[in-house]
Every structure is written in structure tokens, then in C-alpha cells.
Amino acid sequence: MRNYRxxxxxxxxxxxxxxxxxxxxxxxxxxxxxxxxxxxxxxxTLNIIEGLFGVLTVTLMIFLLNKAEGRNRxxxxxxxxxxxxxxxxxxxxxxxxxxAPWLLILGIACMPPLYFFFAGLWMKNYVLLVPCAIFxxxxxxxxxxxxxxx
Length: 150
Description:
Elements: E1 4-6, H1 10-28, H2 44-63, E2 64-66, H3 74-95, H4 101-109, H5 111-122, H6 129-147
């Protein structure tokens, strides 16, 4: 942890804001067939784990900086951008009435944790990778339970 410092990261904030954009639109102008409003688990523990590790991931992205100079290879940010683009495309499908389980799970549940993971790698913020993975697993698990009937 000595390679890290607590400080506001404009880069981390902007990366988070890019991921948050579809959610802001969703809150302001929900789609006609909005099945995602009920995407929480019947098991409160899963909701708590998902929320806690989601907030921890974002907090670490915005406020924990690696002192090492520069960024990791562009490969990581390229993958992050790819997952963010997939997330945006999934929201476009969702707003056009496509609410198939594959879209909700692969597009809307899987893409944000993968985006955060690769953005974290690019920023050399290795500390956020573990909470991000836990958030991702619970986020995907909850969505699968809700839309695959598990």
C-alpha cells in the first residue's frame, strides 16, 4: 500500500462518469418496458455485498492513486473502452425494447465490472481489482437469478 496515495483522481472520476451516463439517463427518462427496476436480490446479503463492493470499487477508482509514473499499456484502456461501448450499445437495445436475458446479463450486468477492472489495470490501481471482482460476481449473480429464473 505504500505505492498508493489517497488523492482525488480526475481521470478516475471521468472514467466513472462515463460508465454512469446510461444510468443517469435511465433515472431521468426510463424506457417503456423497464424490467431492470426490479433487479435486486431476494437475498438481502447479496444486495449488501453488491452495493458495498460497487461503492468501494468506485471510491478506490476516484480516490486511490498509484504513485508509479504513467499508465499501463494502452491494451487495458482499449479493453475498457470496448466494454464501455458494449454497455452503451446494450442500453440502446434496452431502450428499443430488447429485454432478453442475454442482453441484461451479458450487456448490462457484465460490462460495467469488466470496464472498471480494465480501467483499474490501466490506472495501475491494483487495489480496486479485488473489490471490483466481488462486485462483478454479485452483480452478475443477482441479474442471473432474476432473469434466468435461478
